[in-house]
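quick one before i forget lol
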Amino acid sequence: MSVIRNNWTRNEIQALFDLPLMDLLFQAQTIHRQFFDPNRIQMSTLLSIKTGACPEDCKYCPQSGHYNTGLKKEKLLEVEKVVTQAKAARDSGASRFCMGAAWKNPSDKDFPVVLEMVRQVRDLGMETCMTLGALTPEQADALAQAGLDYYNHNLDTSPEYYAEIISTRTYQGRLDTLTYVRDAGMKVCSGGIVGMGETAADRVGLLQQLANMPAHPDSVPINNLVKVKGTPLADVDDLDAFDFIRTIAVARITMPASYVRLSAGRQQMSEQTQALCFFAGANSIFYGEKLLTTPLPEESQDVAMFKRLGLQAEGTSTPSHVIQPHAQANHPLYYAAS
């Protein structure tokens, strides 16, 4: 049985990246099977509950108020609309419902509404996750008391490259929010984005930060940058698919008991690339229409792919190809990179 460690060195992680690909995938799949059913995929749906006009300047994000991406700004959704979307997601096979708001941090005015969303979605029998920006310890405690299962707050990249991507929030501030979440008793969802022009060493640095937390994140979303016109990263060079697959595999090896989520960027991936990501240890996806303005594969495509690969949605006894896709939601889903 693989040992869970929190003391990975950069040289050790770099050595994993440097392995021949077949050796790396074999090691990742072997470890994956020690902790998870290799033919089960956890499925989440992510809804934007407040879209656009974010004061942060994250260079990858179409929600930032600093860039002109043509995104329509929307106010905080009503609780009833969120619950309707959650029911549709549940009926289509999602076991976790994630809610994201384009905020630097939740306001006192909106926070009680957010807490009510958590309570009502939990009453549907779904796991709940939120990404609302930075939290205070008191806000983290309130979310936990409302029943929130997961809180997402990504590190995005390595400490060294971070200032090239964001100037309005510090790296330490992100780590502090994750500490408040963990101390409140919620599960941590934290990962990053690759393909933002970072070096291979930056991908090593990101995974080291995640793997050396006091406890590994329960979910680790690995996003492949979706380039959006109007953002500063719109013309960055594409990341090689094998480099992305290697990142998934190393995440699995260094955080063996965490869910590794194949997140933003799936629309640009072939089924063969996605299959290699699942083999490398990815065992969670976002399932639905889109992640805010960035599209996901259509649900029917995912159902067909799962059937071809023999995969099933976690938490169901029904083969995934029998799950009926729900009617496409009218509201866009949130880009999973807060």
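fyi Confidence is low (pLDDT under 50) at residues 290-295, 317-338.
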